[in-house]
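Supplementary Text 2. Reproducibility record for the structural model of the 242-residue chain.

All settings were left at their defaults, and a single model was retained for analysis rather than an ensemble. We include the record here because the model underlies the residue-level annotations in Supplementary Table 4.
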Amino acid sequence: MRDYKKELEKRVEFIQDLLAKSGATGIVYGNSGGKDSALVGIICKKACSNTVGITMPCSKRNYGEDIKDGLEVAEKYGIKTFNVEIAPMKEIVEKNVSAITKIGDLASANIAPRLRMTTLYAYAGSNNMLVAGTGNRTETYIGYFTKWGDGACDFNPISDLTVKEVYEFLEYLDCPKRIIEKAPSAALYSGQTDEQEIGMKYSDIDGYILTGNADKAVKDKVDAMHRKTEHKRQGVAFYKKI
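Retained model, structure tokens:
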């Protein structure tokens, strides 16, 4: 197990160095009420007193347990929090785009994460802040994130942590049990859970990423997802004159 006391110290130093070099005076992140955003919020608050979380509900779950859980974390660690309604924005986008094409289910699901990032950057740009990302190593490896949505940020203090390590870190930081015990979900639609959508347990994916060992079915699926989503981890493909 990692030495999370030392890990916290190193991440706080990393963030404070970024703030000093950029001239930014604060941090903003999306407070989803989930494990990753909770850890990012806690670490950022320890590094910078001017840390702000924004809840941005869109699905039914967002309006219920997610906001409640996000606010519980914010209250416990003294993180200033605001709420911005995303659902009306998503409806406008879908209505206007539907006039020119049929919107696929995945394209529709990805609208909300991109609107959330738009919201975070609008706030950050208006308040001299950096946007903190909340994606963990496991999700990044298999491409389980929205390109230019939750995958966009100025820095990410937990990008090297697997899901298992995120939970261990939260335990060390005495995060509310509800955050640690509830099923991980991007809440892109009603009833959605990460493991159900991915078709694998995070523990199996973590084991393969950390050790290289896994059942053939897990190995083959993780490898396939990694290959298929490589474009998400590479950024923009710029033409270079030969």
